Amino acid sequence: MKLLILLVIVLGIIAIAQLTRVYELTRGLRKTREEEISPADNRMNAMLMLAWMIVFFLCTIWLYVRYGDYLPEPASAHGVDVDKLMNVNIWMITIMFFIVNFLLFWFSYKYYYRKDRKARFFAHDNRLEMVWTLIPGVVMAFIIVYGLIIWNRMTGPASDEAMRVEVYSKQFDWTVRYPGENAVFGAADYNLISTENALGLVTREGIAVKIAELDAQIEKKREGLEENARLPVWPASYVEAVEDQIYRLQRHKQRIMDLSEFKSPEGLSEWEAGADDKIVKGELHLPVGKEVEFIFRSQDVLHSAYMPHFRAQMNTVPGVPTRFKMTPTITTREMREKLGKDDFDYILLCNKVCGSAHFNMQIKVIIEDEADYNAWLAQQKTFGGAAAPAAEPAQKDTLTTAMVN
Amino acid sequence: MGAHEQAAQGHEHGHAHHHEESFVSKYVFSQDHKMISKQFLITAIFMGIIAVMLSIFFRLQLGWPGESFGILNTFLGDRWAPDGILDRNAYLAIVTIHGTIMVFFVLTGGLSGTFANLLIPLQVGARDMASGFLNMLSYWFFFVSSVIMIASLFVEGGAASGGWTIYPPLSALPQAMPGSGLGMTLWLISMVLFVASSLLGGLNYIVTIINLRTRGMKMSRLPLTVWALLVTAILGVLSFPVLVSAVVLLIMDRSFGTAFYLSDIFIGGEALDVTGGSPILFQHLFWFLGHPEVYIVLLPALGISSEVISTNSRKPIFGYKAMVASILAIGFLSFIVWGHHMYVTGMNPFLGSVFVFTTLLIAIPSAVKAFNYLTTLWQGNIRFTPAMLFSIGLVSTFVTGGLTGIILADSALDVNVHDTYFVVAHFHIVMGMSAIFGMLAGVYHWFPRMYGRMLNTKLGYAHFWLTLVCGFGVFFPMHFVGIAGAPRRYYSYSTFEFLQNTMDLNPIISVFAIVGGLAQLLFLFNFFHSIWFGQKAVQNPWGSNTLEWTAPVEHMHGNWPGALPEVHRWAYDYSNPEHEDDFVPQTVPLKPGEHAH
Ligand code: HEM
Ligand SMILES: [Cu+2]
Ligand SMILES: [Cu+2]
User: Fold this and answer.
1) Please, what's the b/e burial string for B313-325 (b: 16 or more CB within 10 A of its CB; e: otherwise)?
2) Which residue in B407, B282, B291 sits closest to B338, CA to CA?
3) Residue A308 is part of a domain; what is its CATH number?
4) Residues of A in contact with B357 (CB under 8 A)
5) What is the per-residue pLDDT across B527-539, written as a single tens digit (0 to 9) for each?
6) Span B28-218: which CATH code?
7) Smallest CA–CA separation between B370 and chain A, in Å?
8) Angle at B236 between CA B232 and CA B242, to 5 degrees
9) Is residue B496 within 8 angstroms of chain A, CB to CB?
10) Considering the domain boundaries, does residue A101 fall inside one?
């Protein structure tokens, strides 16, 4: 491949050198002026217009044929509507593409300069102009109405039966949370994020542990400062930095103390609802045929949860949860059979540039029968269960473990 | 310096004025619009060369991921391309700077700066811009801004890397990626200076067009270039300040502890002390400029092509009034469509619907323009100058790229192609091809007016055909890559099984990109060679009607010796049956009984 590129570059340079030589030669020989386009040149360019049009159209058709079935059939209910809409749109713009480009290159070919002809003085024609204002207007009206019908259907509120799943992004991976038995997500707060608590779920013990941990850190830094006051060895700038760290830790603590407890209408505390939440990394499992409402959150920067097979995408925004609903309709196994590929998997990938490993931020999506799904979910540990041994005061460096991998 | 200030006020003293100018005031701190125009053009060409080189670097990685290329190591060094393999952070940095340079420095500063400066005074019949001094400042702000942007490529951590749209929090947090450190700071400073340049220029263009038209140059007789440049300047003046506010708030978030765009962020092992801001606010502010910006880029190109197509078809532009109305309608609509870049940000779906509606409305004036171009060609007598070829290319690409805009505008469809290569294909065909073609058409057409010499036509042909073929070769297949689900701004696609069936297009695209890049050498050679050695130009080489061709070939302060020309007709009397010649300059009085357009 490198050879090929080298070849192209070398050829390019040779070609340019040759052209330059020809240029120098003709300049000497020719007495014609640059602005006088010779009949031969006009004819040549006219021919090239025609030739280019044919090549362009053939290449376009080849691309449509070869790459036209871009994705497998949609694996979600709304995806079917979207694909229909897409087909209508693609047909329409393809037809327009061919018509306008044809007229353009055809006129360019047909009306190339001839000395004995005079162009037709045709400055305006209100009727014609009316026609090509109105026709696009009508076509656009159709496209707008059709598109918005689908859009409203896609983005309307989820039904009451819909299950809810949280998809959580951070540089550079995805985490999934299921609400557990009680079907309510426990509250989450970014101030409580740690290795054991990747999503920052709020529980009373969690708060106590975190505050104790912050206190310990503050205490340690204070001791350092006092030590230094007795026997100054730190440069002033370092002292300032430590003071700043203490200030920030105190602010952090304060933000946690400011958290307040909310209760759901059934009287369930959001600080308790999280105990049975299930947090899963590496795979996103969903039952087929059941509406699912995604809640997206982000830990650090913008990401985007893109699921091309389901014709679905939603940005994840730190501080502002976003939502998207859909109903998967084809299980992974069925899709593998349809495609004849045993190793096919649906995928959710990041589609908003988020840093150096953006290009590899993905998670497998597994659509399965309700029974399989339930069996799988039953095997997943609950947050309460997983977070049980948090009794020892956490070490300071646990804070840094969320660093990029 | 008093010279043309007086001149601009209409004192008719042109030839009486012969004082010697120093090198510095003539070539460096010039206040003459023609010289400033050339300064903008040369700077933009230089920036363009850098941006094209950057694109070839990342196309090498995309075409042959993980392969080692000595050339990368030569240019980018061991830190960015160790063993000739592009580093992933460097990849994002050069993609970002490529986009920034192309959109702002080449197609905004370069395109408007060159042709607004050259054409506005000459086509409205003014001695110079309303304020030569502000005009000079405009260029020098642009220059300094360019230098800072280039310098940012060389700083510790590399240049800004979050994409040309620099969305926070990525761009706001130095710990989020290496490019969000000093590189990002320089990007922001450069952009503030750039906007200052653009505002100084824009205000000047508007004032000149409104106030300094020569006798008889009614608004309804303005050439379409001037109309396009006027609306462009208005768009810039109204929307660039909003970008500045977006940028200033971002600077505050980065350096002064505010949280306009930040909320609930845990990064680098620390829960940041930020709550209550919204990253989406930035996107609203950015795209409030960003969408008008795409027309700031395109309208001058359309204006140039109107002129070139009419002149070289030897036919009046079809539907002058409809063309003006379309420019105005596009200008107005472009302010109320920005949300189409944000359908999947969690924006209220109803708001999304409103943006679908307004966005698809833009297709109507766009279609009118396209059909009017076609009708102008119809039954013309088409002379294939290189400028004409590029203008025809512009129409083809404008239509091709505009049509995919219809899919993107449909929110239900955009969900699935947003931020994929489909979008990359769309906007490169309208900006990377259409707008660039307009700019090149302008250079080929007005080179004699700028430098008093001709560009070589044959080289122009080769340049056009290679550029057209390579341009489509690069950007057309990207539609298919994108529609198959390939995200943009990915360093490599090798870990995605489902994308592999379109990945064989990537090396093809890269080969076209390299050949297309090399083809620009033809232009560069032609351009710089002809400045000094080109055939000497005559006064009106293309047989045009507009005023700039009534001025002498040799540049002079004040543009015309003696009195300013007087205008008696519109700019498009080509092949008028009431006249012998196939063109009738605007300065020719109506014949007795002749009907004016
Ligand atoms: C019929 C006219 C057009 C329509 C309906 C249209 C529509 C759109 C839409 C909806 C998007 C957002 C796509 C997305 O991010 O998912 C978009 C992107 C874009 N369009 Fe257009 N467009 C049109 C013409 C143009 C023209 C003439 C230009 C420039 C000369 C242009 C330049 C761009 C650019 C630069 C972007 C991408 C920005 C980015 O995300 O980096 N468009 N267009
Ligand atoms: Cu990402
Ligand atoms: Cu836009």
Assistant:
1) bbbbbbbbebbbe
2) B291
3) 2.60.40.420
4) 144, 148
5) 999 999 999 999 9
6) 1.20.210.10
7) 8
8) 155
9) yes
10) yes
Q: Which residue of A has its CA nearest to B169?
A: A301
Q: What is the pLDDT of residues B175-227, one digit of tens each?
A: 999 989 999 999 999 999 999 999 999 999 999 999 999 999 999 999 999 99
Cβ contact (<8 Å) for A317 and B345?
yes
Whether A169 and A147 map to the same domain: the answer is: no
Same domain, yes or no, for A46 and A96? yes
Which of B386, B392, B302 has the alpha carbon at shortest distance from A111?
B392
Confidence of residue A402 (pLDDT cuts 50, 70, 90): very low
Domain enclosing residue A313, as ranges: 163-202+259-378
Q: Which residues of B touch A22 (CB under 8 A)?
A: 458
Q: What is the largest CA-CA distance in chain B?
A: 84
DSSP assignment letter at B591: P
Residue A21 lies in a domain: yes
The answer as to whether A99 is a domain residue is yes
Going by pLDDT thresholds of 50, 70 and 90, the confidence category of residue A62 is: very high
Among B371, B131, B402, B217, CA closest to A104: B371
Chain B residue with CA closest to A357: the answer is B88
Q: How many residues does chain A have?
A: 405
Is A149 found in the same domain as A9?
yes
- pLDDT above 90 as % of chain B: 81
Sorted by sequence, the CB contacts under 8 Å of residue B570 that are 6+ apart come out as B220, B221, B320, B586, B596, B597
Structure tokens, A45: 């360019």
The token duo for A147 is: 């598109």
**Cα distance from A333 to chain B (closest Cα, Å)?**
16
Residue A221 domain flag: no
Is there an atom of ligand 1 within 6 Å of B165 CB? yes
Q: CB neighbours (10 Å) of residue A51?
A: 13
pTM score: 0.91
Mode of pairing for the β-strands spanning A283-287 and A322-326? unpaired
Q: Between B25 and B284, whose confidence is greater? A: B284
**pLDDT above 60 (res A139):** yes
Which SS3 state, helix, strand or coil, does residue B5 take?
A: helix
A183 and A93 share one domain: no
* pLDDT tens, position by position, A303-324: 999 999 999 999 999 999 999 9
Question: What CA–CA distances, in Å, run from A246 to A257, A340, B119?
Answer: 16, 60, 62
The confidence score (pLDDT) of residue A401 equals 34
How far apart are alpha carbons B65 and B82 in whole angstroms?
A: 14
Distance from CA of A152 to the nearest CA of B (A): 7
Which chain A residue has the Cα nearest residue B161?
A: A355
Q: What ipTM does the predicted assembly reach?
A: 0.92
| Residues in chain B within 8 Å Cβ distance of A156 | 349
Domain limits, chain B: 28-218, 223-261+273-383, 388-535
How far does residue A232's CA lie from ligand 3's centre (Å)?
60
The answer to whether A307 and A337 have CB atoms below 8 angstroms apart is no
Is the Cβ atom of B340 under 6 angstroms away from ligand 1? yes
Residues A184 and A81 occupy one common structural domain: no
Angle between helices A2-29 and B457-483 (to 10 degrees): 150
Contact A12 B389 (CB under 8 A): no
A148 and A170 share one domain: no
Residue A395 has pLDDT above 80, yes or no: no
Residue A256 near residue A175 (C-beta atoms within 8 A):
no
Residue B251 touches chain A, beta carbons under 8 Å: no
Name the β-bridge partners of A283: A364
By most ligand atoms within 8 Å of CB, the mutation choice from B102, B294, B357 for ligand 1 is B294
- Together in a domain, A50 and A167: no
Contact indicator for B570, B586 with CB cutoff of 8 Å = yes
CA B97 – CA B101 distance, rounded (Å) = 6
Domain count, chain A: 2
